[in-house]
Amino acid sequence: MKRETLKLRKIIQITTVSNVFEWYEYIVFAFLYTAIGQHFFSSSDPVSAAIETFGVFALSYLARPFGSVFFGWLSDHASTSKAARISMLMMAFPPIAIIVIPSYESIGIIAPVLLVLVRLIQGFAAGGELPVTATFAYNHTEPKFKRLACALVNCSSLIGVLLSSLTITVMNATLTQTEITAGAWKYPFYFSIPLMIFLFWLRKDLALMDKKHPVQKSDAAPVHYLSAICQHKRAFMTGFVVIASLQISFYLMFIWLPTYLQLFLNVPKLTASAFNTLSILVMVATVILTGLALIRFDGRKVLFHFFYIEIVAVIALFYWLIQDQSDFTLATISIIFSVLIGVIDAIALSFIGSLFQSQVRGIGMNVTFTLPAVFFGGFSPLIATWLIHHTGILMIPALMIGVVLLVSLILLIQFEREPDTRQAYLHQN
């Protein structure tokens, strides 16, 4: 009997709200680098505060692969609903802990140590959140809507980033920097508490969904995650390079760019956060429109073409930005980057899901998403800040993005010549 598929609307409701919460509380930490640096590290120098805060931000990503493997395994061997619920429970703890941890002046070195531990827990939980919900969406959506569903899952993470950026913009517009560092920086973390309660309520139906709509598994026996990586290494490598390019582009252009504008180009905080909010808003619209287009069109070739375009654009646009920081320049660059990266973002998750069969899709999507997030996402703001601080080369972020994109594109072209990768993709579509 042909299994009944879940309605797209219900799937999106379940999967997207969780990602909004995760990315809101995870990214708002980076946007508050000055206040967090002063509170937990007693650093008065803005560049030092940025390096210390982005250092903790990067360290939290070291826990993500472990969370990814755990939640991927749980998704494949138990259920995606159980994996999602446990991930959510773990995500609930860090924002409350960050609020109550005393300052460096009160407890000394214990303050940053506790902060690192809390962020490691958050990183472990976050390692399973987006890939697990993407797997859930891909597995439970009828074929013609799979690409749209995955695009909307990715879009939900952007809405979380948008919400955090908007929160910081409002704070910069209504509060002084003294008020923010004195304690107002905690307000965004307080705001995450009602979001968390709402999400717990929303996810009460996850287990029932898995029972009513079980995933159709392959007849093959369950595969251990190490065996899965060995047996599907070409698919893992293909997914890795796609996500690596997306991660470094996204983190440097949307998470770290306000810091770059403030520290190195002397753009006011309110201006930097306002244009970053505009960028993310345009990217959200781009992902939604691209996802709708993917109902009718295969995004594989589009993905490759946009890699080519972004390599050229990132060098040219950063050079322009360094020469001119007018509102027109900031708005134009924000919109162009948002469209370029938004199209890639909309295609990426469904492309990766299509590379794996159902019995290894959970671990496949988790590992190929999370490992690049560590090295090319979490650490890229720290590396870029440190390199510019010590070399004075303002083109560092453009060079970082351009090199990763170029290497990834070369590898993808090589992988395209391998029959197993393309046949796996065609088999799933």
Automatic annotation (TrEMBL):
Residues passing through the membrane, by range: 21-41, 148-173, 185-202, 235-257, 277-295, 302-322, 328-356, 368-388, 394-413
Alphabetically ordered keywords of this record: Cell membrane, Membrane, Symport, Transmembrane, Transmembrane helix, Transport
Major facilitator superfamily (MFS) profile domain mapped to chain residues: 11-420
GO molecular function, one term: symporter activity
SUPFAM superfamilies in the cross-refs: MFS general substrate transporter
Any one GO CC term of the record: plasma membrane
Membrane topology: Multi-pass membrane protein
InterPro entries: H+-coupled_symporters, MFS, MFS_dom, MFS_trans_sf
Pfam hit, one: MFS_1
Location of this chain's protein in the cell: Cell membrane
Protein known as: Proline/betaine transporter
Gene that encodes it: proP
